[in-house]
Amino acid sequence: MASICPPSSSFHPTFACIDVVLRRYSHVQALDHVIVQLKALLDVSKVLSVAEAARHQPPNSQSLQLLKHAAAREKKKVFYWSSELVRSYKQYQFETALNHAAARGFLAGVRWLRSSYYPKGQFHGAERAALYGGNLQMLQYLHDEFSNKMVDDAAVDSQDAVAHASANGRLDLVQWYCEMKGPYAFGWNVMDAAIAQNRMKVVLYLDSVLGNRCTRRGLEKAALYGHLEVIQWLNDSRYYEIRSFKSLENAIAGGHLHIVQYVMDNVVVAYTSWMQAALIAAVTYGQCHILQWLHDKVSAGSRVIFRFEIYTNQLYAVAKNGHFEVLQWLHANQYAVHCRRAHVVRGAATGGHKKIIDWMQETFPSLARQRHRIRVDGAASFGDLQLIQWLHHQRYRFTGRAMDDAAAGGHLAILCWLHRSIEHIHCTVAAMDQAAANGHLDSVEFLHKNRNEGCTTAAMDGAARNGHIDVVRFLYWNRSEFCTALAGESRSVSVLQFLKEHNRLRSRLPKTVEAATRGDLELLQWLYDHDRRHFGFEAIVDEAREHNHFHLLRWLETLPEAGRYL
Fold first, then answer.
1. What is the pLDDT of residue 120?
2. In Å, how far are 99, 118, 384, 398, 406 from 417, measured between CA atoms?
3. For labelling alongside 396, which of 33, 106, 170, 445 has CA 20 to 30 A away?
4. pLDDT at 2
5. What is d(CA 551, CA 406) in angstroms, rounded to the nearest whole number?
6. Spatial CA neighbour of 354 closest among 314, 317, 324
7. Smallest Cα–Cα separation from 331: which of 277, 288, 278, 375?
8. What is the mean pLDDT of residues 392-404?
9. CB distance 253 to 226 below 8 Å
10. What InterPro entries does the annotation carry (predicted)?
């Protein structure tokens, strides 16, 4: 087995692209030192770890060059690290690289990692990675060559990976797993995944070796994705009958009329108890063809004119989501759209559907007499200035809520237009509070210069906690509300430093353990310099180790407290 190349100055990547380009420049091609510098410029292995090298291995390639080069660079990187940290780092790199190699079918990389890079490395998740990669040859190789180590790997739950193989119809992987682990190693989600994706070969195989090992989730997802074949098999064979409305609702949401027809024709409870809910679902999800079929079916079996009840909030949602055909159908079939026309217009404005508002005005002329009473503030959050101007021209009503929503969304053009064009409009302090929290400095500046409503401490608190340093500076220098202790929970070092310099930092600070979990070195360094007595060194070390943040561990080793905990 080839050994790791020594980290000497003579070791350089090939970079064939440079050699090809330099063929046209013979006067440069003769200068070896220039070629070395060009290749060094393109060499990213200084920041490329062994794990990253395995992850970026080209498909179907068994070359070890990138892995060896990353390993050679790594020796320089860890030269000054403690022996314990080096062992932890190499174990993490080995484990992660091995999983990447297993997932990509990189057999040569697996052999090299095991024999040359870190022979003492522990397996953790290699089987799961190979299952996700769909590589049966790799699975067999791992179990043949490292059977004793794969026993340790059994502690890793591979159920999600087997379910992934099942959903993709990989019967060979499912059979292999069953032969290796036994039929009772399968969880319920494996058969559910096959059912959801209509993988009948896998479903029938699992049925033969497991029996009844599925739940309603598989059936419900199959209905959502439109897989009638597997639904018929489950229901007709009494393997798993349709017993909940969720399956029918999912079929309606997905627009699968053939499944709705099957359920209504073959499931007794569906026709007798679910019809009203099914019609409402068809309206809500905008499935006009399903709505028509359901309505025709129930009307044909009714002795009187059939009507179903639709609520105001549902009509609002239909208009907001732009289900124009459903609204037309409801009106054509004499459902009371006209009684709730204000809610329909309000929903259409919020969703930015001018076409629906036009149709409402043409269909219901009486709407003209009440436009001045219909509030369409939700249109401001949609962000379409032309729609806002058109609604105003049509004499619809805007209130201060529109300005609040425009400011919160950072729609400065709408905010300016509402301020200049709508007489006696008043916003609230929520306008500047929300604009500041969302980092919309231009909106904050406009409100400060042109409005008198002002803001609360929530403005600076929100801007600080979300890391908007430019907004924090503006509010501090131009407003008098300032902030509360909540501002100190910011994750931004620049915000924290600004608050500290101006004596606005109180008792509340970001939690050091959470920063360690995220691997936020800059924030941890600032918190340590600010108050090392409450730093919580031991807990931070534990979090850094658990999440493999070696850049944190390397920094922690340099601190005076390291002697007690590392």
1. 84
2. 57, 66, 12, 12, 10
3. 445
4. 36
5. 42
6. 324
7. 288
8. 95
9. no
10. Ankyrin_rpt-contain_sf (IPR036770), SecEffector_AnkRepeat (IPR052050)
What does the pLDDT look like over 509-543, one tens digit per residue?
A: 999 999 999 999 999 999 999 999 889 999 999 99
pLDDT in the model for residue 12? 44
Burial of 444 (0-12, 13-18, 19+ CB in 10 A): buried
Q: Is residue 326 part of a domain?
A: no
Beta-bridge mates of residue 444: none
Interhelix angle 288-300/324-332, nearest 10 degrees: 30
The pLDDT score that the predictor gives to residue 74 is 86
Report which of 15, 62, 16 is spatially closest to residue 43, judged by C-alpha positions: 15
Cα–Cα distance measured from residue 171 to residue 201, given in angstroms and rounded to the nearest whole number: 7
Give the amino acid at 240.
Y
Alpha carbons 370 and 356: distance in angstroms, whole number: 17
**Could you tell me if 439 and 400 are in contact, meaning their C-beta atoms sit under 8 angstroms apart?**
no
Q: Phi and psi at residue 375, in whole multiples of 5°?
A: -80, 130
Indicate whether 124 belongs to any domain. yes
- DSSP state string for 117-167: I-TTPPP-SHHHHHHHHT-HHHHHHHHHH-HHHHHHHTTS--HHHHHHHHH
Torsion-angle region of 520 (φ positive above 0: left; ψ -120 to 50: alpha; else: beta): beta
Confidence (pTM): 0.82
Q: How far apart are CA 50 and CA 67, in angstroms?
A: 6
Last residue of a domain, one of 152, 176, 199: 152
Which DSSP string corresponds to 39-67? HHHH--TTS--HHHHHHTPPTT----HHH
What is the tens place of the pLDDT at every residue in 553-565? 999 988 888 776 5
Kindly state whether residue 208 falls inside one of the protein's structural domains: no
CA distance 379 to 286: 21
Q: Tell which of 152, 183, 204 closes a domain.
A: 152
27-33: long-range contacts (C-beta < 8 A, 24 or more apart)?
none
pLDDT higher than threshold 70 for residue 304: no
Largest CA distance in the chain: 96
CA distance 66 to 109: 10
Q: Which domain does 521 fall in, by range?
A: 509-565
User: Cα torsion for 553, 555, 559, 561, to the nearest 10°?
Assistant: -20
Q: What is the pLDDT of residue 307?
A: 76
Inform me whether the pLDDT recorded for 152 exceeds 60: no
Lowest-confidence region among 202-216, 314-328, 433-447, 490-504? 202-216
pLDDT at site 288: 96
Backbone angles phi, psi at 48, to 5 degrees: -95, 115
pLDDT at residue 41, as a whole number: 59
Question: Is 390 exposed, middle or buried (CB count within 10 Å of its CB: 0-12, 13-18, 19+)?
Answer: middle
Measured CA to CA, the distance from residue 511 to residue 489 in angstroms comes to 8
Give the residue with greater pLDDT, 182 vs 472: 472
On the question of pLDDT at 428 being above 80, the answer is yes
How many whole angstroms separate alpha carbon 31 and alpha carbon 18? 13
**Residue 474 resides in a domain:** no
- pLDDT above 50 for 5: no
- CB neighbours of 65 closer than 8 A, spacing ≥ 6? 13, 14
